[in-house]
Each structure stands twice: as C-alpha cells, then as structure tokens.
Amino acid sequence: AYSADWSPDKSQIVFIGSKDGNPEVYVMSADGSDIHRLVASPEIEGGPRWSADGASIYFWQSFDDGTWLVKSVDVITGQVAPVQGTRNGDAMIAVSPIGDRIALARNVQGSQSIEIIDLGLAEESMSIPDGAAAPTWSPEGDKLAYLDDGAQLRIMDTESGATVAVPSPYD
Questions:
Q1: Is 26 helix (H, G, I), strand (E, B) or coil?
Q2: How many Cα neighbours within 13 Å face the side chain of 31?
C-alpha cells in the first residue's frame, strides 16, 4: 500500500493497493478494518486525495496509450467521473481545503508545471510554469506552496498570483 490520505473527518484512509497486481484505489476505516476496493479497472490508479467534504476522492488514471487523466469517485456510490478541465500529464493532486479548486502537478514530455483547476467552472484558472512541482495548499486555501525547478520553495497568493521565494535556511 502507498500514497495514503486521511479523510477530512479522520475516520477513513484512502490508499493505493495492488492486491490483484494492478494499483487501484482502496478505502479502509482509520483502525485498519473494513478494507475495500473503491475503483476497479484495468488502468493504473494513483495519487488519491480526499475532497474537502469527504464525499469523493480525486485520483489519476494511467492508460496503455501513455495518457493520464484525473478522475473522481463518489465514496458512497463508487461512481467514477473525469474531472473536467484536466488533461494528459496530470499526476500529483492537491485539493484546496475549501474544496473549490485542485492544484495539479503536471509533467508533459519532461516539462513540469502546476495547473489550478476551478472545480465550479471546470476550467484552468491559473498556471505556474517552469518546473513547478509538489503543490500544497495553505489551511485557508488562499495560498499555494510549491517547489520551482531549482528546488526553491515558493508561496503564491492564489487570488493575485503574487509569488515570494522562501529563503533557504541553508544559505
């Protein structure tokens, strides 16, 4: 098992398991009981992250033709749907704590960037190019921390787009 994430209410954990040899999305109770597969497909799944309200889980799916797509699965019904506004190459998913946006670390043909998708509009609302990776939201959902191509930590205000570099403690 790998790529685990706690549910917002801390009662469940989503993770990727390969019980049948194919990486798929599983959910279990926080005490390790009630393990069940939530997504069963011939594709490879990864990077599961809970929605802010705990009703769904976002994950990526990798296909034989080399494409990657971000999808969501309803935790109760198991219904899987593509996330509108996402496209090939999306990998690492960071869900805003408010639940209105997701940040996607994208790697297309060796070029890394972060795209912020407004889930209400189902479209890209902001792009951070030039090697940006490893996005994580502030608790309020108004800032996004990420690493640039030189492994410099940066913090971006997601409303204005203003970015500041965080000084390294090793300089």
A1: strand
A2: 2
